[in-house]
Each structure stands twice: as structure tokens, then as C-alpha cells.
User: Fold these one by one.
Assistant:
Number 1:
Amino acid sequence: MRRLLLISAIMMSSWISAQTLDKGKLKGQITDELTGDPIAFCNFYIYQDSVYTGKGGFADETGTFVFDNLDPGKYIIGFSDVSHPETKFGVVLNGGKLTILNPVLGMNNLDIVDITYHANLFKPDAPTETIIDAKVIKSLSVAPGDIVGLALSNNSNIQRNEQTGSVYVRGSRDGGMQYVVDGIKMTEPARIPSNAIAEMRVITSGIPAEFGDVTGGIIYITTKKYTGRRQ
């Protein structure tokens, strides 16, 4: 029984670690436009498609805020306190990435500042990867459900063996790819409708520790989360 519990705990830990690759993380420091000082204990609110998600929190005494466990996608973050009306900023989050947003609040600033691409992304052991979001996928002329075709169209390091049909990273063994869908590892590519994919990450080197047994590369897919409203 003890052995079974240990194995279950290890499997659960691996699953949780893999799931974190799906999520985006947001961090920054909130400052006052006039004084340049940090705004302590400022409120922040997270919106998606202009709808409040029910998520948010408070900055600390240095004006620093952190929020993780967010699905990849576009968000609007609103900031306010008793001295500053709510000011909104747009961000784009990618799975497994830290996005830095340092909002500056004015006394009468009610504008939305659009950030067309994520700010400073930081990961000390960042792998070599290509991120393909839903907008790019929609624009590609690839057969529906052809996951490999999507990866090949955006990463020259991915190769297909024309004789066997298997896929590999340049310089690795034939068939050395691993496929992961929402944290679930697979040895063969799943056929997922293109319009159901929120984001695809094609990792060709610097494989994360969660996938230490991979000899080639990883195609990591995060599917869209449907909540009853238009995505």
C-alpha cells in the first residue's frame, strides 16, 4: 500500500508540473505617474473579452503584484485605488511564460493602453521554442487536424521523414518527438480541430525537466477552454 501511494504521489506531481506549462504568469510594479512612487496595496482586476473574470488581487507594500495560473490568451488588467480611477492595460499571455507589466497610473487616466505583444518574457532555462497562437493557426493553409503540418509550417528545425511519415528535430533520431495535449503525454499526434487550439508550443532544444526522457522535441498543445461565451 505504501508503495502504491508513493507511485500515485509521483504521478500526481508529474501531472501538476506538466499542467503548469499550460499557464501564463503576470508580474509587475504599479507606480504613480506624477511622483514615480510605487502605489502600495493597489487593486487589480482581470478581464477577458471585456468581461470581468472574477480574478484579481492586491499589490504588496512595494506596489508589486503577481498573478499566475492564467490560460494563454488576451487579457485586460484594470488597476485602481482610492486616489486613482481604474486604468486598463491589455496584455497577451503565453503558456509557461512570465509576462512583465509595469503600469503607470495617473489621477485622471481612463484610457486603455494596448500592448500588442507580451512585454519582457523571462525564464532562466528558457527552451528554444516557437509559439503559434490561435490567430496564426487560423491563417495557415493546413489540413484540419494536421498538428504536424502546423508545426512544420512555423519551425524549420522540424523535419518529416517522407518515407516513414515520422517527425523529428533536425539532428535527432527519427521519431524522437513527443506530443502533449493539455498536460497529457502522447507518442503519436492527436487529431485536434485547428479551431479548438488556443496555443501550440514547438520546443526543439532545452527540453524542460518534466520531459527529460525526450530525445527529440515536443509539440505542446493547449486547447481552448469554453465557458459558455464566445472565445
Number 2:
Amino acid sequence: MHYETHFKCVVVGASAGGMVALGKLFSMLPRTFPLSIIAVQHLHPSEGGYLPVFLARKCALPVKEVEDKMPVLKGHVYIAPANYHLLVEMDESFSLSIDARVNYSRPSIDVLFESAARVWGADLIGIILTGANQDGTNGLRKIKECGGMTMAQDPETAETPFMPSAAIDAGVVDRVMTLEKIGAFLSTIDAEASNLRCSKW
């Protein structure tokens, strides 16, 4: 079943256990998925770009590691590179930063979420998955303040429950769901309806 949607982008944050969780979530998305997806996974600074390769094997959509000034395109999955903060600019392009770590992390989920909320406002979906710190809570708060939709993985199903639990406890999560239900929800977003409602796209 499909429904009309005004959404333009999905931002996803994950930490410990996130590689498996992202692979499972992205494997549920249809090839016709109409929105942009931007993901931050906490990575070791020396991580050599394996995550986009791994996720590309799971996902029907094109998966790319972000480069500076790259435009955000619909129907693509973008992954933050190791040791860079990832931001979205008002012209819907990416920028990379080596500013100080946020919540001990670079890339930081909060940095992505807060910049994306400024660009897309109510047209944004923010999702927090498994992880071991509080990164993403402030970012979800910003998305919620701007009228977007916020989700968290059910902590009981997360490999590491602390990160989704922190966001839920802060009162910034609209929906708490398993990965399967998050994937099913995203899969109901209809490409034709999205194109009709989103004039830029």
C-alpha cells in the first residue's frame, strides 16, 4: 500500500552494530525508492571505505561515499566518509569538515541531522539505530523542532541499545519500531506521489 508523501530525504545515524543494521534496513528498500538517504555510521579514522562497498551489495539503490561539493540526488544512498563531519548545504550539496569531534565522534550524527533539518525542515525523516553513546539525540531534537518525522530502532532489538534509548528518553522520537517495521514504512513511500508533491524533484 502506498500513500502520498511530502518527504524529500531520510537521514540515518548508527554506531556499534550499525553495519549490520544499515545493511538490513537498506536491503528492504525498493529500486524505485524516491528519496535521498544520507547515513552516518561511526567509523574508525583509518577505515578505508569498505562500508559503502558492503552496503552496495545489500541495497538496490546506488550507494556512494560522499565527496565534498557532491550534489544530493533522489534515489541514492550516501555514506559519510571516515574522520569527516558530513553536512548538507542550503543548495542541497554536501560539505565535509574536520572540525572537532562531537560526542567523541567524527563523523557525528548530530552534525548531519542538524544541517539536514535546516535544509529540508518538515520534509525530513530522521532515524537513530543501534549505538553506544548519545550522538543523534540533539539532531533528532532539531528535526522535530523543524517539523520533520523522527524514528528510533526499538532498543530491545538493537545490538547496542543505548543510542536509541537516549533519544527516546529525551522525548524527541515520534515512532519506535523494529528495523523490519522501519523498512516497511519507508517502502510505502510512493515514487509517483512523491514526484507529484515535491515540485523540485
Number 3:
Amino acid sequence: MRRSDREYKEFLELFVPNERRLYAFIVSVLAVLVNANDVLQETSLLLWQKFREFKRGTDFLAWACRIAHFKVLKLKDKARRGQLLDPEVIELIVDESIAAAATLDQRSAALADCVSQLSAKDRQLLTLRYSESAAPREIAQKTGRSVDAVYKSLQRVHSSLFDCVRRRQSQEEDS
């Protein structure tokens, strides 16, 4: 049965933002890093093949990690002893990685919200530093500030964002 462009687009919208985290999960359960790319490729193909079985509205990354987990176990069966972690250890890592991914998503959302509440001047500073990869010396030249003032401003913004994200997480835990 031919897949629709809509289905492919939906798959990519879920897969692409999670690919790095899925790869990080695979690396975390493999003792031999060289196998990680192969496992990611095989898992990606299997995810697409089984995408119709994925329940919309559930955690795509958790589903993908479970499929990757089975790929790792299959690889373990084929590998020589000692190259991969024990299946019980892998299971623990799977559970922890899925929980960590959910926490990371919450932190990312909180950070985005906190950044949106910064002043335009502070957002510009972050954009120059992180989106444009400008060094503090370059930022100082572009903004007409001293290098020391740029460092102090970045430190203040980082501290403000850290506190804001912590408050949001605390609020989410309380609710």
C-alpha cells in the first residue's frame, strides 16, 4: 500500500526533532560506538515501516527508543560476548532515557518561554552569542559595549534564565 505525502510529512515532523535524542539513547546502551550509526539507520527504517502502528498523541521518542532497544538486543544476540551491556542494564537505561527525554522537553519549553520574556536587548545578546556564534569581543564591537560589559550581561542573562527555568519546573512539579 502506497504511503501518502501527509503520512510521510507527519512521520518526519515527529522523527526529525527526536533523531539526536534517539541517537544519544542508542549510544548510551551500546558498548561499541561504531555500531550506533547502523542501529540508528535500522531503527529509522523500522520506525517508518511501523509508523502506522504508532498511536498519535503518545510519546514518539519513547516509542522510538523501545524499537531501538529491540534492535540493540538483536545486535547483542549477534555480537560476541562482552561488546554490549547486559540486557537488564539496557532496560534500566531505556527507562531512564525515556524519563530524561521528557524532562528535557519540559526544560526546553520552559527555556523558550523564559527567553521570550527577556528584554529585546537581552534576546539580541543571546542571538548574537548563540545563533550567530559571535565571540564576546565581536558582540562588544557590534553593540558598542565593552567586552567586560558583554561578559557581565551574558552572566546576568544566564543566571536569570536559570532561575526562571527552575521556577517553572518547580511550578510544574507542584501542580
